[in-house]
């Protein structure tokens, strides 16, 4: 069990989303940075889709009511246990009674805390993700509050092996980190002002030549009017060559819509299922983690790639993730 002392700015239970229900108008939700969520789970010995705690910008203060194997991946929110900094992107065994705190954002803005066994919350429509606006899923359909107690599920055999290995090194310490972690070359860059690779949206050719050029030649600032539904951007106003009514159609995680004011909106995890604004671009799936780690005030730059390039980049990343998963398994089986 993990008790919430302070909830942080926005901390909610998320998995990889509520798939298969968008045709009924049900929001997918899920982790904003699916890659970090997946790695955190693997390092805790979980399945990739097990629920983790998504922590946004200002993290919570948590007390462990029992010995727990955890991992924290994603942005650097300065995590510490009993005042001692801990490293991210690796397995950490935490002793009962220890307190985990997060500081401010050093890099990125979202971190993912996975605990062995995942968080034991009810499944709603095949997902444990929280959709905050509808009060659906997760922990009572809402963000965490002070006094909440998070139960963890039954740990896997892999989690138990990790726990056994690390617990032997604990001695008189309150936590112990694994002596190996994820290679830095596999960790997405979470520094501010990222370059985001995109493909052309369905209505790209309907925009003026000037707007199409501005999309790739100018930076767009993430505004404070941004949330899990979408990032509202500020930059050169983008416009269609001539006004045309658009028929609402399906939208994706990373769709870049342009409303009448010309300021793009990048749709995110809690996006609506359809939209009627013209779409000038689509963020490549491989760069969604970079997008999710951008915070208000950061400047985004877009770079065009083809659909084929986007597919190959994603395939390459998934192959690396598969190798990483196998590597973690072999390390665990070997007792270290």
From TrEMBL:
The keyword Nucleotide-binding is assigned to this record: yes
InterPro entries: CT_A_B, Cyclophilin-like_dom_sf, PxpC
Keyword annotations of the record: ATP-binding, Hydrolase, Nucleotide-binding
Magnesium listed as a keyword: no
All residue ranges annotated as the Carboxyltransferase domain in the record: 23-320
Pfam families in the cross-refs: CT_A_B
GO MF annotations in UniProt: ATP binding; hydrolase activity
Name of the protein this chain belongs to: Allophanate hydrolase subunit 2
């Amino acid at each position: 069990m993990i008790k919430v002392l302070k909830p942080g700015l926005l901390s909610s239970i998320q998995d990889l989303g509520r798939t298969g229900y968008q045709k009924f108008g049900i929001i997918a939700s899920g982790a904003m940075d699916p890659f970090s969520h997946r790695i955190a789970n693997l390092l805790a010995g979980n399945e990739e889709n097990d629920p983790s705690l998504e922590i946004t910008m200002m993290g919570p203060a948590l007390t462990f009511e029992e010995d727990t194997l955890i991992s924290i991946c994603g942005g650097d929110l300065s995590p510490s246990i009993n005042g001692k900094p801990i490293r991210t992107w690796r397995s950490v065994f935490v002793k009962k009674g220890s307190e985990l705190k997060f500081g401010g954002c050093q890099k990125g803005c979202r971190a993912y805390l996975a605990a062995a066994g995942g968080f034991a919350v009810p499944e709603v429509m095949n997902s444990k993700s929280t959709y905050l606006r509808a009060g659906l899923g997760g922990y009572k359909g809402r963000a965490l509050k002070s006094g909440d107690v998070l139960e963890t599920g039954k740990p896997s055999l892999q989690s138990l092996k990790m726990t056994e290995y690390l617990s032997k090194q604990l001695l008189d310490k309150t936590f112990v980190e694994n002596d190996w972690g994820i290679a830095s070359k596999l960790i997405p860059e979470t520094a501010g002002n990222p370059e985001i690779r995109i493909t052309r949206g369905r209505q790209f050719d309907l925009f003026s030549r000037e707007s199409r050029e501005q999309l790739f030649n100018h930076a767009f600032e993430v505004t404070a009017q941004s949330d899990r539904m979408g990032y509202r951007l500020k930059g050169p106003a983008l416009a269609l060559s001539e006004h045309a009514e658009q028929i609402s159609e399906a939208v994706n995680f990373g769709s870049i819509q342009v409303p009448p004011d010309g300021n793009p909106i990048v749709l995110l995890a809690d996006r609506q299922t359809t939209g009627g604004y013209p779409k000038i671009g689509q963020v490549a799936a491989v760069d969604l983690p970079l997008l999710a780690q951008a915070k208000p005030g950061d400047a985004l730059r877009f770079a065009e790639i083809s659909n084929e390039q986007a597919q190959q980049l994603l395939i390459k990343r998934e192959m690396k993730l598969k190798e990483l998963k196998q590597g973690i398994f072999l390390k665990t089986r070997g007792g270290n």
